[in-house]
Design brief:
With 386 residues, the chain is of the alpha/beta class. It is built from 13 helices and 12 strands. The chain is 41% helix and 13% strand. The strands form 3 sheets. It has a 7-stranded mixed beta sheet, with helices on both faces. Strands 9-10-12 form a 3-stranded antiparallel beta sheet. It starts with a strand and ends with a helix.
């Protein structure tokens, strides 16, 4: 059996050993309810606040601006629906993009059905939404703009900093879904000029079931859940202290390493691409390296179905787009928005690297993919399909 090579880090990441140790320690020794007034409650609360500070630190935020959630989906829903509910007096016009994750698009569609107006910004052929495109959509009654920091399928980095400047000039709140970016590129909420920012634990080597939302001081959100007053009243329910501490530990581990990880992954990704391009010169790359995440290689083998490539490439675990869409052979909404031709879109394979990925992993994966593509091309030629 060939070695299993995991190249689907954009779908989810393994949990770092250091994070596992932290979670286990909290579960074993510090399992109190942080709202309790006794010693176990106090120590749990202290651990929770340490984690809050670690998450804040990787974002350049203040600890009091971090709200723990169950993950990226809840953070996006709280940011979008919560802001819209609390700020209707500002206006009921909202702006997002056509390339967002479903956990952003669907809250906007929910609001659209309930009386808000929503404009969806169109990306260019590289999957990037220009600041000018967003600016043209902003109106006097625009309350919120939401633009992801990095696309989960193509890896395209969005010009959030420039969009943030435009939003500030127009007194419009800006939310960014940064789930794919944190730990891969430096993220600073002040540089980005964002008011709301989404964190998903399982995208950055923390456990599933934990996330966070950065809420800039002074930004008002309405509730989407109702209960007690935990997390500043924005996220009721007893805080999952072990998971929150796991997220904090992951952020603490990543923060001093982000720049090194960026350079190392970028070099490895480019070497990986060169291996593929040497033997498969017809390969199409969706986003130039300088405009994409350092770990994400989104490519297409025209005329070949991407899912068939991965089925034949023994041992390679990757995706043909967003993992949640993987079981259906359909053009992703992201590639459709980019105007990618059908035969190219269907040939898409997303190869995403992580901190555990080595040059040898890439070499073995490249060889397996090359063999798979050549075999499929030969079968196609023999069947007379053009």
């Amino acid at each position: 059996m060939p070695e299993k090579i995991y190249l689907d880090f954009n779908a989810t990441t393994p949990v770092l050993p250091e994070v596992i140790d932290t979670v286990a320690s909290i579960m074993n020794k510090n399992w109190g309810n942080p709202s309790s007034a006794h010693e176990l409650g106090h120590t749990a609360k202290e651990a929770l606040e340490v984690a809050r500070g670690q998450v804040a630190s990787i974002l350049g935020a203040e600890p009091g601006e971090i709200v723990f959630t169950s993950g990226g989906t809840e953070s996006n829903n709280l940011a979008i629906i919560g802001f819209a509910l609390a700020n209707q007096a500002k206006g009921k016009h909202l702006v997002t993009t056509r390339i967002e994750h479903p956990s952003v698009l669907n809250p906007f569609l929910h609001l659209l059905e309930r009386g808000w107006e929503v404009d969806f910004a169109q990306p260019d052929t590289e999957g990037i939404v220009s600041p000018e495109t967003v600016e043209r959509l902003i109106r006097p009654d625009t309350a919120l703009v939401s633009v992801m920091l990095a696309n989960n399928e193509t890896g395209a980095l969005q010009p959030v900093e420039e969009i943030g400047k435009i939003c500030r000039e127009n007194d419009v709140c800006l939310h960014t879904d940064a789930a794919q970016a944190i730990g891969k590129v430096p993220v600073d909420v002040k540089d980005l000029r964002v008011d709301l920012l989404t964190v998903a634990g399982h995208k950055l080597y923390a456990p599933k079931g934990i996330g966070a939302l950065y809420v800039k001081e002074g930004v008002r959100l309405g509730n989407i859940l109702y209960g007690a007053g935990q997390e500043r009243g924005l996220r009721p329910g007893t805080e999952p202290v072990p998971l929150a501490c796991g997220l904090g530990a992951a952020c603490g581990w990543l923060a001093p390493r982000v720049k090194h990880i960026f350079l190392e992954m970028e070099a490895l990704k480019e070497e990986f691409y060169s291996m593929l391009h040497e033997k498969l010169p017809e390969i199409i790359r969706f986003v130039p390296p300088e405009k994409s995440l350092p770990n994400t290689l989104s490519v297409s083998f025209p005329g070949i179905i991407g899912a068939d490539v991965l089925e034949r490439a023994q041992g390679v675990m990757a995706s043909t787009g967003a993992a949640c869409h993987d079981r259906s052979v359909k053009i992703s909404h992201v590639l459709a928005a980019m105007g990618v031709q059908e035969d190219v879109a269907l040939g898409m394979v997303r190869l995403s690297l992580g901190v555990m990925t080595t040059k040898e992993h890439c070499r073995q994966a490249a060889n397996a993919i090359i063999r798979a593509v050549k075999a499929l091309q030969e079968e196609r030629a023999q069947s007379g399909v053009h």
